[in-house]
Model the fold of this input.
Amino acid sequence: MLTRRTQLLLDDERYARLERIAARSHRSVGAIIREAIDRYLPATPMTRADALEHFLSAPLMDVGTDEDINRELDTMYDRLG
Done:
């Protein structure tokens, strides 16, 4: 049961990201925030098996083409210079 209320100030871009994720998953913005807290601050430390299961169950991400990835890596390496 949810018993605590908190206020969180976000910029427009962060809130828009939350809204997009919530809409895609048919959940509320609050549910997405609670999930993020649970992922970042788990109640108990994850075992290696739990971490692997968590990783493998994550939704697929569009990471672009090989050229996109190489361009991004080149940009990062240039910054490290």
Observations:
- Residues 66-80 form the longest helix (15 residues).
- The CA atoms of residues 22 and 28 lie 5 Å apart.
